[in-house]
Description:
The protein is of the alpha/beta class. The protein has two domains: 2-40 and 264-354, Aspartate Aminotransferase, domain 1 (Alpha-Beta Complex), CATH 3.90.1150; 56-260, Aspartate Aminotransferase, domain 2 (3-Layer(aba) Sandwich). It has 14 helices and 13 strands. Helix 6 links the parallel strand 3 and strand 4. Helix 4 (65-75) packs parallel to helix 11 (249-260), helix 5 crosses helix 6 (115-123) and helix 12 (263-285) runs parallel beside helix 14. It is globular.
Amino acid sequence: MKELVERWVRPEIRALAAYHVQEASGLIKLDAMENPHGWPEALKRAWLERLRQVEVNRYPDPEACELAQVLRRVMGVPEGMELLLGNGSDEIIQLIALALGGPGRTILSVEPGFVMYRMIATFCGLQYVGVPLREDFSLDLPAMKEAIERHRPAVVFLACPNNPTGNLFDGEEVVEIVEAAPGLVVIDEAYSPFTDATFMHRLGHFPNLVVMRTLSKLGLAGLRLGYLAGPRAWLAEFHKVRLPYNINVLTQVTATFALTDGWSVLQEQTAAIRVERARLFAALEAIPGLEPFPSEANFILVRTAPGRAEETFEQLKAGGVLVKKLHGSHPLLDACLRLTVGTPEENDRLLQLLA
């Protein structure tokens, strides 16, 4: 068996570790950047009534036309730009890599950054280049330009705000990267509900710019719905590698309902998370031995005292709170933990344990 696997599975795949999701049973879950708020009962009842009308014996609309129309309106997609929907933004990253991949082709991003850029590059047989950020997690623009000139990447991914650091990159520096890149530039705005900064309105101003988002952080993580907005010429090619019916009927109906009947609730929740983010940041700053970094996302990166990340992570877990341990994943994240912004009660428990 082992010999067969080693013979046929690509060496670079065998060398990978599978994406790990922490066991969270019985814990306050502050490790995955989820919206911690549920729906009011009246909204749940209206949603369930809508689901009663769904014919699950039929295939879904292959283009998800009604949902796409709602997304265009609610998310402010510019006139003339196309949409591509994916099973989470991960599928969209994969579609882009499949369409643009080939011998000697490269995906370029920053480090530390979203781990799936590197993983999907490997899945699809592309080279991956990660350009280190500066110590304050800002872009090293000269290094980015030098890497772009040397590697001529087929696609550059930039998460704004960045995961796992939470900061925005300087908008004009991002524009310089877009202008310098020979291929596509994907601005990943997964955390758009928690910042006022966006490149959505700049679509069409550059021939190689697209914007990718997800509804997961907004409060619909269980649906696994992402979308890509950009010029028709690019998205028409990505549609060719999208599997048929990739957005199931329950996701289409639920997302359409949430973005219409439930939109005001989602907006109230994201506003509440922004308020809690500010309160949590101020409280973390007051705890000796902790260094929180400013965030425009729904999480806060925190550096513990040297050598204390593992101990702090285990103490939090023993106290019933699960966070993300980043120590060891990248030199710039030494002694770091990532804390998702929870409800006021969840944040109070987190702060109690940290103090």
